[in-house]
């Protein structure tokens, strides 16, 4: 059993038997370590090995070169800081690094010797049961966000909240609504899968199956899971796990030549080279997922290429790497000649998180040890100062938060953090103002519509005794013009800062105005159809649908909309709301969204009936050609509001209001010009046609 001596104490641990190619226990007290002495010791845990598997004989306890690169990046960062004359001058950082072997048991065995030291800072990829101040480089689990349970936990990697949100958007964007999920028994996987499934289902997706891979699965369990994957109709599988936990299942699926699945990977394995082995190509080609941003760390590549095997104590991990890379004990080949994941540092991701974690510790210690004290004439630190883990956890929070405080606070409503994230400042409220360029245009169009409607009313009143005005019930025509005027005016309620009353009035005014307008058009259409029927022998249809009946029909078709709007405003009225999801947008929040869609749906119902009847009467003799005008106007109306719905849903903030105003104005102008434009043309430009004889002539237009 190899023994590593450090500070006159014996340390034993985990190593690799190259003949058996499997994990073997080298001692019962402590694991193998890579260490260097210093004034302050930093601990680290890295998953250098994966446990032996009874199902994959060729991959027992495979050495992970990518994880070894993470380990050596920590060593590089420590040595870089020790050679710096600016950061921690006069203080030497040491390290004590062990192998977690990618399981909790070995992680705990490796952890306890680290936390026994008086001054220590420990971080790992799992962060299980830490009593110090861990800075994690790879722990993305949302469970660790709870500061009540993990008050001293910090990380240099984003939470899975963002990754899950991105994966849901990716899957739904590609139209994959029927997917399977695979996870493991750890919190990273369980929380990730739970969050993904919940958000995916909210977007209309469905989880076809979920598999949980046991920590040490048997051959029968692996085969059963592979059977379920093959039997499922789902062709897309989302996987939250680390690559070592997936090897057994992927090996079985590759053996079965499964090639029809689209894999969506979590960041824990999407860039792992372990699964790019030729054996898995047909199974995993085309895998999608998100990874951390890649960066280039200066001088890291040269450092990684200048490590060599040694018989000295404490060099076991480096020797294991050389054995794995070259399968010999003493190699002298240049590492740059090998294309391994260890030497690929062009765009490092997790290594950069490790690098940032070391520097976060260094900056925290720099402030804690008074290295920048003005009382000192020379740059040095008070390395004899005693400090506790709580103090280390604190200048950490300062280092990781530009605000300079130990914890971040949420800004009050209507407040934003400033550019430096130091303080809360009053946010600028944004809404569709009449002073904005867009607001000015909309107000101008609204006033144009109101004026144009008023002009037509004056014209019709001036020529109210002429045949073309009297032809189709002038009373209904005037009511139609009045309702169109209200349609134009209701768009003004949408412009300006929302208030309690404008939020309540706007949708009701819009809904009722358009229903009155459509009711008038519906009556006009029915009159046209019945008037033609009166030409037939024995028909008394038009006499039964006189002016009184027409008024009653308008009242009855408008009443449901009035009742709906009244109930909506009484039980769940819209109210002003400051939406700060992206920016502080003052908008009208609708506590009962179906109310708006019911109002819109009733308008659509009346429009559809009116369009259908007008379409049926489009080929009537020219005496009754108003049916054609109504048909054309309703086609424009329908096109506007059908295109409105997707545009309204997809428009953020004040732009949804702009979309609704445009729809109101476009449909109002369409009805006004299509119905009354041709009549005004005859009244003003061709008065010779505005006589009883011409109105009844087939040549009238």
List the helices and strands and how they pair.
Blueprint: E1 4-6, E2 9-11, E3 14-17, E4 22-25, E5 33-36, E6 40-46, H1 65-82, E7 93-99, H2 104-115, E8 120-123, E9 135-136, E10 154-155, H3 160-173, E11 178-184, H4 187-202, E12 206-213, H5 219-231, E13 236-239, H6 243-255, E14 262-265, H7 281-284, E15 288-289, H8 300-305, H9 316-326, H10 350-368, H11 389-393, H12 397-400, E16 415-417, E17 424-426, H13 437-462, H14 467-470, H15 474-490, H16 500-533, H17 541-544, H18 547-571, E18 575-579, E19 585-589, H19 594-616, H20 626-650, H21 654-685, H22 692-695
Parallel strand pairs: 6-7, 6-8, 9-10, 11-12, 11-13, 13-14, 14-15
Antiparallel strand pairs: 1-2, 3-4, 5-7, 16-17, 18-19
Oligomeric state of shown chains:
single chain
Uncertain stretches:
1-28, 52-59, 118-133, 328-332, 697-701
Please tally the helical runs, counting DSSP H or I stretches of 4 or more residues. Answer: 22
Name of the CATH homologous superfamily of the largest domain: Rhodopsin 7-helix transmembrane proteins
Q: Percent helix among the residues?
A: 40-55%
CATH topology of the largest domain: Rhopdopsin 7-helix transmembrane proteins
- What is the number of beta strands? 19
How many structural domains?
3
Distance between the termini: 106 Å
**CATH level 1 name of the largest domain:** Mainly Alpha
Mean pLDDT: 80
Q: Tell me which CATH architecture of the largest domain applies here.
A: Up-down Bundle
Main sheet, how many strands, which sense, barrel? 5 strands, parallel
Protein name: Olfactory receptor C family, u1
Transmembrane segments: 438-460, 476-496, 508-532, 552-571, 596-617, 629-649, 661-684
Membrane topology: Multi-pass membrane protein
Domain G-protein coupled receptors family 3 profile: 438-699
């Amino acid at each position: 059993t190899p023994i590593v001596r450090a500070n006159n104490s014996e340390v034993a641990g985990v190593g690799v038997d190259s003949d058996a190619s499997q994990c073997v226990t080298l001692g019962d007290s402590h694991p193998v370590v890579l260490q260097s002495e210093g004034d302050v010791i930093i601990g680290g845990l890295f998953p250098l090995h994966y446990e032996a598997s009874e199902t994959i004989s060729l991959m027992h306890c495979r050495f992970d070169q990518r994880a070894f690169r993470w380990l050596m990046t920590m060593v590089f960062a420590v040595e870089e800081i020790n050679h710096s004359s600016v950061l921690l001058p006069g203080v030497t950082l040491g390290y004590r690094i062990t192998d977690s072997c990618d399981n909790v048991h070995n992680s705990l065995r490796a952890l306890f010797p680290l936390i026994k030291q008086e001054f220590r800072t420990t971080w790992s990829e799992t962060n299980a049961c830490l009593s110090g101040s861990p800075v994690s480089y790879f722990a993305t689990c949302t469970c660790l966000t709870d500061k009540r349970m993990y008050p001293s936990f910090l990380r240099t990697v984003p939470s899975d909240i963002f990754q899950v949100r991105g994966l849901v958007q990716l899957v739904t964007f590609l139209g994959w609504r029927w997917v399977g999920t695979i996870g493991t028994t750890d919190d990273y996987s369980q929380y990730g899968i739970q969050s993904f499934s919940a958000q995916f289902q909210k977007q209309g997706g469905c989880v076809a199956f979920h598999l949980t891979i046991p920590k040490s699965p048997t051959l029968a369990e692996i085969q059963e899971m592979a059977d379920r994957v093959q039997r499922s109709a789902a062709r897309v599988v989302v996987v939250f796990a680390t690559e070592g936990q997936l090897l057994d299942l992927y090996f079985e699926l590759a053996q079965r030549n499964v090639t029809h699945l689209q894999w969506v990977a979590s960041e824990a394995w999407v860039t792992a080279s372990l699964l790019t082995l030729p054996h898995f190509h047909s199974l995993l080609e085309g895998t999608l997922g998100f990874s951390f941003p890649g960066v280039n760390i200066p001088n890291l590549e040269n450092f990684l290429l200048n490590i060599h095997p040694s018989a000295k104590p404490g060099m076991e991990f480096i020797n294991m790497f050389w054995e794995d890379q070259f399968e010999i004990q003493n190699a002298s080949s240049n590492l740059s000649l090998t294309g391994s994941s260890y030497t690929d540092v062009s765009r490092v991701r997790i290594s950069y998180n490790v690098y940032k974690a070391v520097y976060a510790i260094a900056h925290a210690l720099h402030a804690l040890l008074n290295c920048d004290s003005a009382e000192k004439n020379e740059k040095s630190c008070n390395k004899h100062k005693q400090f506790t883990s709580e103090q280390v956890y604190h200048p950490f929070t300062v280092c990781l938060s530009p605000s300079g405080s130990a914890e971040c606070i949420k800004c009050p409503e209507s407040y934003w953090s400033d550019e430096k994230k130091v303080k809360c400042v009053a946010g600028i409220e944004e809404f569709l103002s009449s002073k904005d360029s867009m607001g000015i245009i909309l107000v101008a169009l609204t006033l144009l519509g109101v004026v144009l409607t008023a002009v037509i009313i004056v014209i019709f009143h001036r020529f109210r005794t002429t045949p073309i005005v009297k032809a189709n019930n002038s009373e209904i025509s005037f009511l139609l013009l009045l309702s169109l005027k209200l349609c134009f005016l209701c768009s003004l309620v949408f412009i300006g800062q929302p208030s309690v009353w404008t939020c309540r009035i706007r949708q009701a005014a819009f809904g009722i105005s358009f229903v009155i307008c459509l009711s008038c058009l519906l009556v006009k259409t029915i009159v046209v159809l019945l008037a033609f029927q009166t030409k037939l022998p024995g028909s008394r249809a038009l006499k039964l649908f006189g002016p009184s009946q027409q008024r009653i029909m308008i009242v009855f078709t408008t009443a449901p909309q009035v009742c709906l709007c009244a109930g909506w405003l009484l039980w769940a009225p819209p109210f002003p709301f400051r939406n700060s999801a992206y920016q502080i947008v003052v908008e009208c929040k609708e506590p009962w969204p179906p109310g708006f869609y019911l109002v819109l749906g009733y308008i659509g119902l009346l429009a559809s009936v009116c369009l259908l009847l007008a379409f049926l009467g489009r080929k009537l003799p020219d005496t009754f050609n108003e049916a054609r005008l109504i048909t054309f106007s309703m086609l424009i109306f329908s096109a506007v509001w059908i295109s409105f719905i997707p545009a309204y849903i997809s428009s953020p903030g004040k732009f949804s209001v702009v979309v609704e105003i445009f729809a109101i104005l476009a449909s109002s102008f369409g009805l006004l010009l299509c119905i009354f434009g041709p009549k005004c043309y005859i009244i003003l430009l061709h008065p010779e046609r505005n006589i009883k004889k011409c109105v009844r002539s087939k040549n009238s237009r």
